[in-house]
Amino acid sequence: MRATNPRPRWNPYLSGIALGVVLFATFFVSGHGLGVTGATTSVTAVSVAAVVPHAFGPHDYLAAYARAGLNSWIVWEVVGVVIGALAGSLIGRRFGAQIDGPPQVRSFGRLGLAVLGGAASGFGARMAMGCTSGMGLSGSAPLAAAGFLFLIGFFAAGVAFGAVFKPLWQRKSLS
Asked: Could you tell me the pTM of the whole model?
């Protein structure tokens, strides 16, 4: 189910400038940068605490997230991102369901690769104490060394995984 007659995509340079303006405005208005994984950590901690109320000790990492609940700036930011993405896809006439991925892999395998990539990215984000937007954008914007080190590692990992999975993206010749 693909959208018909989609609008042209934004110019990537203008998109980068717009992202920079949004990041600056976010720092200026809220005192925080952009991020996502803090919201998923909050949802995980609150969910676990709801099912197993005494799962965390008083000083456990997730206990602070469970006590804080879901009414935090980062959870609301992610809700706004979801609403904005939905609105953008509808306005751009690009809303639709499809399973993208390497042409050498069937849909089920593509979903498996997506889960594997998402799990690796999520694990890396928690280990780095921030995701690409939180650590990369919001960390490097104030010229923090950790932000730049994260971006170097993120791109290096992307190049390595790209090299490993490149054969899956090459179409078979008809000869």
From this structure: 0.75
